[in-house]
Queue: 2 jobs
Job 1
Amino acid sequence: MELSIEAQVLLETIVQALVNGISVGCLYGLMCLGLGLIFGIMRVINFAQGDFMMLGMYAAFYAFGGFSLSKILGQSIGPIVAALVAGPVIYTFGILMHRILISRVSGLSAATMENDGHNAQLILTLGIGLVLQNTGHIIFGSSPVSIRSPLSTTAWEIVIIRDQVSVIVNQARLISGLIAVAIAAVLSWFIFHSIIGKSARAAANNITASIYMGIDVDRCHRIFFGLGAGVTAIAGGLLALYYPFQPYVGMEFIIVMYTGVVLGGLGSIAGAFWGGLIIGIIQQMSTLILPNQLQNTATFFVFLLIIFFRPNGIFGKTTERA
Amino acid sequence: MKISRRRAIAGLAASSVFVSGSSFGQEKEIKVALIAPLSGPWARTGQLMKIGADMAIEDINKQGGVNINGGMKMRLVSADAGDSVERAKNAAQRFISQETDVVAGTGAWLSSFTIAVTEVTERAKLPWLTLSYADGITNRGFKYITQTNAISSVQAAAAMPDIVKLAEKATGQKPKTVAIISDSTATPQAFIDPLRKGGFEQLGIKIVSDQIYTPPLADAASIVQNLRALRPRPDFLLFYSTNIPDATLVLQKLHEFGMPQTKLPMIAPGAVHMGGPEMLKNVTPQMLEGTILVLANWTSKKQVSILPELEKRSGEPWITSDIISTYGDMYLIKDAIERCQSLDREKIMDALRNTNLKNGAADYYLGGNLSFDDAGRRIGAPTVFVQWRDGKPQTVSPESDAFMAPLWPRD
Amino acid sequence: MKKNVVKSHLIILTGFISVFFVSMLFINNQYYQLMMTLVLIWSVMGISWNIICGYTGLASFGHAAFFGIGAYTVALGLLNWGITPWVGIILGSMIGSIMAFLIGWPTFRLKGQYFSLAMLAYPLAILHVFEWLRYQEVALPMIRDNPSAYMQFEDNRVYTAIGLVFFAIAMIVAIKIETSRFGLSLQAIKQNEIAARTAGVNVLYWKLKAISISGALAGMIGGFYATIILIVTPQSAFGMMTSAQALIVTLFGGIGAAWGPVIGSAILIPLSETLHAEFGEYLPGISGIVFGLAIIIIILVAPEGIYWKVYDYFHKKSKFDKPLRNGSEEFTPTYINQKIDEFGTSPIILNVKNLTKRFGGISAVQGLSFSIPKGTIVGVIGPNGAGKTTLFNLFNMIYKPDLGSIKFDGQELVGMPTHNITRLGIGRTFQVVRVFNRMTAVKNVVVGAFCVTDDDVQAEKMARDAIELVGLKHLSDEVVSTFSSLELRLLEIARAIASKPKLILLDETLAGLGLNETEQVLQVIAKLRDNGITIVIIEHTMKAMMRLVDRFIVLDHGVVLLEGRPDEVINDPRMIEAYLGQKWSMSRAQN
């Protein structure tokens, strides 16, 4: 099939935008998944989520460089493992945060608080975020860094129509995207099929009933919080492969994360992932019709549309009762 | 600078008093202010400016201090402009109110911060220097501000003909088409607007693609894809970014999509960040090789005697424009004070505006001549080309300051 | 009584402003003057946020939208059209208010967290639009000719004085709201929006009013901010930290209290700035850490803010502090005059025909038809999930039925807004009683009377009448935090009858009460009926109901299972089967 030059260009541009959107979107999806566990299911407002991600990025960075994962596992596998290592590290950090601070304004304690403790959570996590950012600044310095690996600068060219239309897929992004999907799948399975996962979902859904069922609500919340932090941290570690970051990088992604979770539907784990994915796609595909600068406005526009016309998001469930 | 014996003894006596620690008289030190982002997302640049200022003051004091009242030491007081215009304004107001003996100052890197700061310093009649090149800073009719670099619109008008000459010399042909990628903030647009409105046309160049993005970029793929779709490929790329992540993402994508500098020469105006050592923490030297940065200031071969030592003291692999400009600012202030032989702010400002130096403080600003017009803008400011060669950014133009001749990247 | 509260607020306000003003005159340091002005600015921003969020319970993270539009109005007005900020600020305030109204109208349809998220999105979307419009750095030009006409002064203290005026305006607005029915209505909405509706509060009206005022204040102070900082950037106008700042100072100082924002602002702004000033040079970042820790600690120690922590310390009495009240006496069951035999003789007040409501695929109620005569007590019973509460929610039009009609005194209720139904004369209680803990009984009840009278004095009288009717007269002016569970139930009933309704719906009023307490409540209900109020009651406590009601309506799986006299219904095998299952009814039949 012989296409005119314009058609080739158009087709290539559209497909490329889609591919870009999906690869960025998978990482967003993983980030949103982490927040989805905390905000979507537990309904805990966490404005330090971006800063947990930042910690994950630095954890991966130092695991790769400082702990010589680069030497042991090479330039290509090293970064991936480093990103995965960030997960358990920040999971533990999240557990600690919950035990010391978050649990005081959420879950059982929040039942008697103003607005279910949401206001307090907001301020508390803002404060935590400030502390993390500035401590990071003091410890890590302010120069933007990233994990340098050949993965970030090599790409595969995938031919769609020979000699006419092909798309270029960056290796780091593709691999990150695949790993993100894998982790999301594993996590979903875990949450839906393991006992801890089921208990935690129950605890998030209806605290009172769960207590009567003998579920240790506090522990379940803590585990979910840790998981939420850890998952977003892995997303950060994967992002670190090609995105230069500094201690204040969290602020750039917090909006994406919240938008994705709401888009996908509060209360749905899979939804959070899809929400992030869709945002990635919208961001990239909106450039086909809008000027680049309005990319973010397009995201907000879609966000508002969803909130107004389908507030449960794409996959959320109606749980509001009069 | 010759110091007469009498002065030397007086200076020695004065400094020994200083060293001995006894205090008499209030004006033993000349205080100079630096307002820059020391925390927050722009902390890195503030840090570099502070390094430059600290080193300059160290050197000045080692050489005997400022030649006034028998030799006075300089002291830097700095404030963190933080991450907001409110913070920057507070810092400026604090200096005015509390450090009342500050005679002049420099800062605050971001044009919006600089505007906020100078609104305060202007009303307090405090002489202020800035290395920013936003037009908005000196078009307010202010009397107490001096902009040591050329403003964006002027830079554009001066730089592009030189680029064209360079390309012509290397390829034998004048470039005919250009693709533009820029971020939406004020300074890049101030540079590119005049080019859009006829600047390029006058040079016989057609703009075949003009993309503006809002920082921070999440992914450069769509932007670069638009370039990839251009047939034929443009003769060069004009890329104006204002931070490292954006520049990194675009560079990576260009390489990935098969458009390295050798295939698509990259001209990067205002890319001070692209000349910093931290770029190498994020991209390989190969990816930067050949990129021509259009800046307002950089190190010069005339400074070659002092550079190695400065590099060592700063702890940085090489001296960037933030460091050298702020270093120069301290010397410029010293020079102004010495010329007017007064610590009065008005007189110092007069002296600054009347600067006409070919060396001394002028050594730290490329271009051979340091002088300012009525609005405080640099007259005859040169455009500086800094090119990445063998893993290090080198000044390649103007010729008098260049370490080596510029290269137009080719296959 | 109310006048005293307003008066004391205003006295304190005058005192505060005077002290502030006088100290300002003595402070020559421009930096401190700037700090004082910023404290006032962020206080007003906090007050603006407080009105829609502190009082109303909505969480808005998007006030920067109104603040920013005010700032840009002044900046662009001066730069492009030479409009002096004296006018520009007023314009900014108006635009802020209109924008708030326009944003509020559609967004109020969203529930809880969706509302907050939408509010979060607006300023950020606007931020990007302004960047795209190339308004990244709008600097206010310096006017050298007649600067004071353009709000440019050499002496920073003039700015502080102007700031004081804006602060006074904002505080007076806040105080007026807090001490009027406006504030009480907002508080009722915050407590439980649905209950507020059934108490007759026109929720949308009050919310729109609140957000418009909030937007006006934010726009006003945003415009003033522009004249202080002299440059407006999209980030400083619409950024997240601008919204966050309003929130932080209010939550820190005291949410829902007029004085909260200024307390928070007066502590946090200087603290943050001092940290930056002292440490910014030597250890950048340390100020952020200390500030972050400060707000973490405070929010853990005083989650509602400093003001309430201090208030509670001085005011709070526990349940065990109060003197013993008659609740401990034995209550002898007295005879309740039922109208079992005269049931059909009075005119019908509530007529239900073929009422059906479906949720998804499930019919909560289906084809319900019955009528209720005036001045009787009807008990709605049935196993859990039978549709009893749904039925009540349909009466109040909290749900709209899919089929059928409800006629109250001849008037069709279907499609009517809830608060209008209350105005017509239907009152309602809810199972979970939520009260204004720090307020007196009268204050709690008076909200119920607002829908039938515009006169606050009359409303208070109606509230007191209602409180007397339920037997709590001696506790009228007691703070409700000391009330026992029984007293709270009676208070809930009082609020429902404050508007002198013709019919009230009681939802499981007796749940969890002991014998004595049940007895007391039964007496009250009977008294209500004797006063001419028709009563429909959902209850599980059979023994009590047997003595109280004139008729039972038994629901099961959304349909009327049977209807009839208490003694008939109780022995009907269908009833037993519904509650206990087939086995029981069969074994009973066998016996």
Note: The first strand of chain A starts at residue 155 and ends at 161.
Job 2
Amino acid sequence: MSETAKRDRPWLMRTYSGHSSARASNELYRMNLSKGQTGLSVAFDLPTQTGYDSDHPLARGEVGKVGVPIDHIGDMEALFDKIPLDQMNTSMTINATAPWLLALYVAVAERQGVDPSQLQGTTQNDVLKEYLSRGTYIYPPGPSVRLTTDLITYTVENIPKWNPTNICSYHLQEAGATPTQELAYALSTATAILDAVRDSGQVPADRFAAVVGRISFFVNAGIRFVEETCKLRAFGAMWNKLAEERYGVSDEKQRRFRYGVQVNSLGLTESQPENNVQRIVLEMLAVTLSKNARARAIQLPAWNEALGLPRPWDQQWALRMQQVLALETDLLEYGDLFDGSPVVEAKVQELIEGAEAEIARVAEQGGMVQAIESGYVKRELVKSHTRRMRDIESGELKIVGVNCFTQTAESPLTGGSDSGIMKVDVQAEREQIAALKDFRARRDQSGVDAALENLRKAAANGDNIMPCSIACARAGVTTGEWSEVLREAFGEYRAPTGIDIAMAGQTGSAAMDEVREKVRRTGEELGRPLRLLIGKPGLDGHSNGAEQIAVKGRDAGFEIVYEGIRLTPSHIARAAQEEGAHLIGLSVLSGSHLELVEDIQSELKKIGATDVPLIIGGIIPEDDAQQLLSHGVQAVFTPKDVDMNVIMTDMVNIIRRNNGLEELA
Amino acid sequence: MEQPALTLSHAQLADAVQRGERAALAQALNLLDDRRPQSRAIAAAFLRKLQNDQSSIRSHLIGMTGPPGAGKSTLTAALIDLWRQRNLRVGVLAVDPSSPISGGALLGDRLRMKTSADDDGVFIRSLACRGEFGGLSAEVWPMSLVMLAAFDVVMIETVGVGQREIDISRMCDTTCFVAQPGSGDSVQFLKAGILEVPHILVVNKEDMGAVARRTLSELGTALGRAHSDGNWEVPVLSASATAGTGIEELADALSRHRKILGAGDQLQAHRQGYQAQWILKRLQDEFGSHGIARLGGESALLQQLTEQSLSLFEQHETLRQILLQPGDQHA
């Protein structure tokens, strides 16, 4: 045996990507594959993820922004043009509309002449975490769990190499979860889903082990890479035990904890963004060092994610990090480096005990679905994240370049005509809509109507949703039509915001006391307490920022009106008027800030409420910030602004200025 | 100091409110919330004009209360949908607690009352209780007057078990208590006679099955020992806001109760009673029972208040001034 033959096979290397249109994304995919990427990870845009066609009013400004728009089978076919699906391993980050996107994938395979049973890949298909983080849910938890289980039971029998669900702890960490919480909530979610599959009666008892064997996970890795390594070893041990004890899986292979990774985005900084490169590399070590807990697939963020959308070169850099680790270093030549380490063993044990206690608390409430519906889990996450923000603010948690060592030479990376990020083609949305209208005009409407009627029946009578969805895909049904039929059948849901957590305590810091006094005094001068309306317009569900401002604002003495994610500009404008808000604070992370601000300003004008000032926070490139300010937005906050007391004081002064009062220092 | 931001005269504002203009409504509510003396003077004139027009006599003021988590907001949302189908215009005042430490508040009830944003027939205003007025915001009654002038149905939603139901039932045409299945609190309160009996009891979440049915029958039994005044027998209903069941029955019971309150002078007398209660309560908060005694005692004061035709701010301020004078004079 030669020296190289002894090496382990590297994990699947992917880059989470997709933008503008199916054709543009297809070109990007083929370029990435030619650079040595070994699988695809499809990013869909928000309308596709939340079940709207590109020409729906809610989709305005969002088409092609954070991913590729897929309206129908024609788009899906273009996305995989010249990419033979029987030779590809495709991961799709899709949840509420997962059955639909898998149906389109199957229909495209058929058109390519590929037997669907040969397909390999993953649908994320974990809606429960969407209620806690990320926010692309549509239906209430009950029907969502049903759609998830339908997809699982379908693929286990018909597409056996497919990973039907990727239970995600990734987004929980992004929402503030500690390692213990990640373990507890991900495993509680897996239990809720597997119990539902078992109770659905769709899988014979002797096939149930196969279902357990197909469950995979999508995990996060933060900068504390020793603890993260231990977390993944804990995951493996706990999953193995759960599969054996709760579900009686006897084959050890089917109890293996299989997971993919995207390393942490929450910790990536806008200040001195080049430091993100070493953060990403260290985080990658956490999920590769321990052979017995090594990731099956890895995708890395680009160094400039906190600035805006990465360019192809940025994504190439991220891929090269993986290749250097897998191919140049000797990592893959050894067995597990940590087996037998008492330090690692003790840490793993500590994490397991903490997670088991939290799992028991969730179980006491009736399980994960109930603990989500009651708002319990969301509140726990908001608490953890609030703690993290306070630690950053106080300097207890050090972030280089953010709250220490902030001096920097000018970066050559962020200069240049593109300021170091990618600009999405502004024509893309218009072209997508024109193509969609053309597609609708050319299809056989009676076939579409019949397919939708069958879908409606299946939704009502409990038949598995997949076969009729695949028929819809073939017939030329659109994403919006498929989702709308299920909206009518299941209703829509608004998840708890989790911000109703207890106050930090009687004794705030001196800085906090000062802010409180400014808020109180200004309220008195204006005759009533200051009111802040926090709005999340558009389809973007990343609500950390909005939640943290809400909690901090309440602690500072503001009366906060916050209605959660996915509101229309008209809803926000009218709520601001009805509630007598002194200030509107918007949070947008999807890149559609220019369109959404324009829409909200025009709605405010329409109802005669232009006297309410507007501020915005989010991932907003400098050029766009200047444009927003010149259009009357009073302040733009970005991830660089970590001192919330400063943000609060700015808000007070904007209100004072707007009411003719002198500003406070 | 800053002038109140009022672009219309108080009379124009009152007219615009009665026409249901949203911008005017918002402005009027802001005005009533504004505690600066110069704003209070305008507010008093505005309310006098509004009360003289008496357009509010046709509408219905409903108090909805119950323990946290009973689903009051989702039930309200279901009722709003139904009332809109019946072509009724709806105003909501949703009261949430304030932080005793910072004075700040999270006003989240709108989240569960999501309505079509473009529906001019629905208007929701959140209120923080601001640590006063027994957990009910002191602004709730003056704001109700504005809402009553503009909407067919006005709903006040508050959290609480116990004392707060008493407060709200003294200030609404109809009080509806929403009970949480499986929680014995409301039953215990009823049995102990602590809970002033609301006009309608409803057990929400009937989709929970047996546990909801048990609470329903316990409430029915407990109620048997409680009072029912001559021409109204308190119904105990069952509903599910999420499943959409029992909503019509609830809406019908609410409007049946509204009918027995009558119209014109009869209803006007009720409403003056609420206003008197509001003034009494504010004076109690500020001056205690000693203050009320100095004004001649509760019942004499209520009697006197219902006979006057001044606006509530004027009545309240006049009495305050009497109590603020040094010495032991009686009013």
Note: Chain B touches chain A through 39 residues (CB under 8 Å).
